[in-house]
Amino acid sequence: MTTHTTRMLIIGSGPAGLTAAIYGARAGLNPIVVQGLQPGGQLTITTEVENYPGFREAIQGPWLVQEMQAQAEHVGTRMMWDTIVDVDLSGPPFRATGDSGDVYEGETLVIATGAQAKWLGVPGEQELSGKGVSACATCDGFFYRGKKVVVIGGGNTAVEEALYLTNHSDDVTVIHRRDSFRAEKILQERLFAHPHIKVLWNQAVDHFVGDPLAGGLTGVALVDTVTGARTVEPTQGAFVAIGHAPATELFKGKLDLDDGGYITVFPGTPKTAIPGVFACGDVMDHTYRQAVTAAGTGCMAALDAERFVQAREFEAMKADA
Fold this sequence. Notes:
Shape: elongated
Mean pLDDT: 93
Low-confidence stretches: none
């Protein structure tokens, strides 16, 4: 077992964690990034990225996150291939134990463990992911300009995605397994009033139809939850919008979480209830969930971590004097 010490420990290696590392390294905090089960986060399973500033042509998600990591390492970040299995937030120093048995100690802790889209788990979903099936309309809706698309779900996420997709498509269908939405009333009113959105009630997705090697998605096979009747809804794009699951299991009972399991921070900041512990990216953001906003909150976390360290050093200097 080895103990690794740093002034800024970062758990998670997506855009939020890597941006925090870049800023932290430039501030002399010698950050350590523990990469976790999915190094690079959700960008590693995103094919074309058209909405990250600075690139006129579409870029590949894995390439973008590799460049972020290379930049973080270039300015002095240490990348650790490990998965954190336990944390002690009684510090500083804050302690994290890896699956390897190694211990990581940080004067500050930046939590950037992200969130994962919830999937239906039906046949064809993963095979056609990126080839007609998506979990992010804001990310991928642009690729379906003028095409027929469907949104699967009945909560705020589904209604918001459907409304967003009308920017690109005149034929949007919402598929919901029940006969009413759980979404906020104001969102429902906007959806029902929109001329380019229709709703299929009491329909459960049985499987996705299409060939991942030739043409991609062509339809969604449905089962009526009342009658059992089977139909296929033709579509070129399907957006699974049944919510996200933040990676916060490690922090249950140790940090304040909201009803959705996201880490609670002080409004407009990445600060948690524990001084010196910061959360950034999708683990605390259930509204925007974009690579660029994750990077922005990663920057904020690093700047606040630097100020925290400076304040402690100033207090220590006063005590010595």
